[in-house]
């Protein structure tokens, strides 16, 4: 197995494979990127503004330089004339934004439309659908910006049933999407999947959604960086926020190189949110590890055998779902669950579990060389939905967190919504994701990982055996 990594810059510290946001105070300072396909093939990193080297005063400080933080900076400048200062612990988009599967879907959080209706009623669910649809339109527009060249593969999303027993649920969801939301999803048979999309051996049928796009994760992030800096934002790398406190109407963000005093703060740290950074975000997320691999380029014979006609995002119906697709350069990428703790992340059993998932779908690929392998933390909220929220009305502090693995697309809209709130123009944002905080795990907080261990076993039984 051949694994590629980004060449270390002289000032970078080695990547820490055992980093765990539940225990480590910060993600590090100036550490190298995870050895992802995205970083390995993105080309040179765009310039940033380097680390904080002295105390400074700013109007708006954004913690985290991933998709959400950079989108917030872009929209603060473009729509409200505010030039933000972005603080990043390591390199730009070091966390979720360069470790995901590069799949943009018309979703936010982990819940389906039918679950929105059950939780909030039809009227709010329809408004949520409109919000997510607007978010996809915004994402498509950003991808067309001249600064952003991220190899987009537009054309929809296929949600593939891995067992016959889940087909009725997919059929029900298609009816809900069409009849309640006017969204033209449709069912696709196993034969149609094999003929028109891909010869996935597990597929029993699928739900096709017209909106879905594959992108190059790091090229998207680096494009956001170029656009944000063009609009006047400052992006300071190797500047982790050690703590963030408020007094006298100002926020004090302490970094190794100096304290940033800000009138408003936006937190966009996703699965890399340190418990000690601020009391308003402490233990409001459950960080979950996800593994991903990318194969060597397929041969012509392998492509023909797999009939990989579709270059769109593919997802299966397991609770701990597999996300996979054919990349523009002819490689297959697949990701799914990983270890529970950071110290166990490098255990080869998790890589082998993912590879077995690849082989079940595409038996002809058994034993294929893997060129890239990595893992990263996903920000899962307690109720499986994100929040863009001001948790304390007395403080100008906002966060956009909790995408649950569906943040590639909606993070653009979330950053824009957070910018509206900072600018005092969030009055019309009345959906639950804008008006309520991330729920706490309460008394269960110390036992979350024990519960995760048990739930993973239950999910396996339910998805594969029962």
TrEMBL record:
Keywords: Oxidoreductase. InterPro entries: FAD-dep_OxRdtase, FAD/NAD-bd_sf. Residues 59-421 form the FAD dependent oxidoreductase domain. It comes from the Bacteria. One of its GO terms (cellular component) is cytoplasm. GO terms for molecular function: oxidoreductase activity. PANTHER family: FAD DEPENDENT OXIDOREDUCTASE DOMAIN-CONTAINING PROTEIN, SARCOSINE DEHYDROGENASE-RELATED. This is FAD-dependent oxidoreductase.
């Amino acid at each position: 197995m051949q694994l590629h990594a980004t060449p270390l810059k002289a000032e970078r510290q080695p990547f820490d494979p055992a980093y765990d946001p539940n225990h480590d105070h910060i993600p590090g300072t100036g550490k190298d990127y995870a050895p992802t396909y995205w970083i390995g093939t993105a080309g040179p990193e765009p310039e940033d503004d380097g680390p904080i080297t002295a105390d400074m005063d700013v109007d708006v400080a954004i913690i985290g330089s991933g998709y959400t933080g950079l989108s917030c900076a872009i929209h603060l400048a473009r729509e409200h004339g505010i030039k933000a200062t972005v603080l990043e612990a390591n390199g730009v988009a070091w966390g979720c934004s360069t470790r995901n599967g590069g799949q943009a879907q018309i979703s936010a959080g982990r819940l389906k439309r039918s679950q929105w209706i059950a939780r909030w009623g039809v009227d709010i669910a329809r408004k949520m659908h409109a919000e997510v649809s607007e978010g996809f339109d915004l994402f498509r527009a950003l991808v067309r910006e001249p600064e952003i060249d991220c190899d987009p593969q537009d054309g929809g999303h296929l949600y593939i049933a891995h067992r016959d027993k889940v087909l009725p649920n997919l059929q029900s969801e298609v009816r809900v999407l069409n009849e309640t939301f006017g969204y033209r999803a449709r069912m696709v048979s196993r034969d149609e999947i094999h003929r028109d999309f891909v010869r996935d051996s597990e597929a029993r049928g699928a739900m096709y959604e017209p909106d879905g796009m594959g992108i190059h994760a790091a090229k998207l992030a680096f494009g956001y960086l170029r656009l944000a800096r063009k609009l006047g934002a400052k992006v300071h790398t190797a500047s982790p926020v050690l703590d963030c406190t408020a007094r006298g109407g100002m926020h004090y963000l302490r970094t190794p190189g100096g304290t940033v005093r800000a009138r408003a703060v936006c937190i966009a740290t996703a699965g890399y949110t340190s418990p000690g950074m601020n009391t308003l975000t402490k233990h409001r997320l459950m960080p979950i590890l996800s593994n991903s691999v990318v194969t060597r380029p397929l041969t012509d014979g392998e492509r023909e055998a797999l009939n990989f006609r579709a270059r769109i995002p593919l997802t299966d119906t397991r609770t701990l779902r597999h996300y996979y697709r054919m990349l523009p350069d002819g490689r297959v990428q697949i990701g799914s669950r990983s270890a529970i703790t950071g110290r166990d992340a490098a255990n080869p059993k998790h890589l082998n579990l993912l590879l077995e998932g690849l082989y079940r779908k595409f038996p002809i690929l058994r034993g294929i060389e893997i060129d890239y392998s990595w893992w990263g933390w996903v920000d899962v909220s307690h109720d499986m939905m994100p929040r863009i929220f001001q948790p304390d009305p007395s403080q100008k502090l906002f966060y956009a967190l909790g995408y649950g693995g569906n943040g590639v697309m909606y993070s653009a809209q979330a950053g824009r919504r957070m910018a509206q709130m900072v600018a005092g123009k969030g009055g019309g944002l009345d959906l639950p994701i804008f008006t309520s905080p991330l729920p706490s795990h309460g008394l269960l907080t110390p036992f979350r990982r024990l519960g995760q261990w048990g739930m993973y076993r239950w999910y396996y039984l339910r998805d594969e055996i029962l």
